[in-house]
Fold each of these.
Amino acid sequence: MLLIETRDTEEMSLRAAEQIAALLTLKRDAVLGLATGSTPIGAYAKLAQWHKENALSFRQVKTVNLDEYRGLSPQSPDSYRWFMNHHLFQHVDIDMQNTHVPNGLAEDVREECARYDALIESLHGIDLQLLGIGMNGHIGFNEPASTITLETHCVTLSENTREVNAAYFASKDAMPTEAITMGMRPILQARRVLLVAAANKRGIIEKALFGPVTPEVPASLLQLHKRLTVVLARS
Ligand code: GLP
């Protein structure tokens, strides 16, 4: 594991964006696993800026996002599809057909989960998986549990996650209770994992990286990954 501690969140975003840009320079048709939440916003802004300055192209890049709320349409500003379009995809030269987010409106959720796993497989896996971390150690929406779920699945969001993420919604009641999330298999099989965390996540980062490996702290499973880079802001 490579642990990069940064002075602040500005530098955290820069370091994270540099890792992604370096990969895209070496492999123009990379498959990126992408994340939502407040943590990666600054890194996405840097990537958009470098694209604008003609330093970076996403023309051949393919992306698969970690998760999506159930019941939200792609047009909903609370959906992760909207988040990705708004924070990254609209600002770069990516082919929108090559961007993938689980369909939160799928009627048959099992079929949607199977479709998403088959899609990731058809892309031959993920070159770099970008991750944030939940306050309870969740990655994507792989919530603390007694067992590991490997496949894409529908999850009932934990009380903790609903409380923390309610901040992004008009009220806690407006927040969906379920989500579709990539399972642990494609995350752990990604050729590289880039975990990014602001200073308020220091406690859970320490627990995940230096505590016991357990599905009760889903991010702790990343200790098993060969090429894990963690970017952690000091303030
Ligand atoms: C959500 C997402 C996660 C993300 C987490 C942390 O729950 N499903 O992928 O890592 O939020 O969000 P934030 O970066 O806003 O703290």
Amino acid sequence: MAYEQITVERDGGVATVTLNRPDKLNALTAVMSDELIDAFTRVREDSDTRAVVVTGAGRGFCAGQDLSEFEAAYRSGQRPDIREHLAHSYHRLIPLVVETRKPVIAAVNGVAAGAGVSLAAACDLRIASEDARFTQAFVKIGLVPDSGGTWLLPRVIGHARALELSMTGDVIDAAAALEIGLVNRVIPTAGFDEEVAAYAARLATMPTAAIGETKELLREALGLSLEDALEREAEAQARMGQTDDHLEGVMAFAEKREPRFRGA
Ligand code: LHQ
């Protein structure tokens, strides 16, 4: 499938989705949102894809909403219907990313702003290059966090830090992001792509079905009582206990060899 503003490359079990408007720091347009929705729909359905990387071309990860899409309207005295825009774009894209039943890694190669932070937070893991920066830029243009920013960010870094970043819009660098848990690791810029690829390739050889269940269980458990979480774990574990990957894992352990998981 040919896209205008993103690319999708497959290497073994890894699909890499690259936002591709480097001159505009990969700011999100309506076209790009539609293309991301299409790409995620496809990688979710493709059983050969067992890990997904989301990254940006050039020096940015994603500068959030492309503000120029609204500029003409504002200049002519109109106030665009942001609600309709959100419903069409982010409200479709962000749940698709969050609910992908395979590992999704944000390879944050540069600046992430506004909805770009939300996109990174919607992924399971965030690996930053030393050049990464993050800003909850919404407040700087008189808006509240959208694209899941109020739901995702507190889950990643906690309420107090999410509130601070969202109230100030301050730009933080990769080291500060690591310190507050916004990213899982920081990798030197030289060799960043290779390290991300190796990490994603490793995840793509793991028991994909169990990883998908694990994501869902941890997400849901935040809203459950302990008793209900135990029940959900047991229900999922009963299903995982029937998978070939479970059998392979146990056999490999018994035979003192590396397991060969197929993802189901
Ligand atoms: C951009 C953008 C951009 C267009 C850089 N748009 N061109 C939802 C619904 C409806 C309305 C609004 O919002 C939302 C959700 C949101 O995401 S709100 C938040 C939107 N994003 C922002 O407010 C971030 C705006 N950008 C910035 O603050 C800076 O560009 C950052 C801090 C990201 C990077 O700064 P620098 O590294 O100094 O780069 P730069 O500012 O020089 O940008 C490079 C180019 O990219 C430049 O274009 P030009 O043609 O002058 O070279 C910028 O205009 C363009 N660009 N962000 N969001």
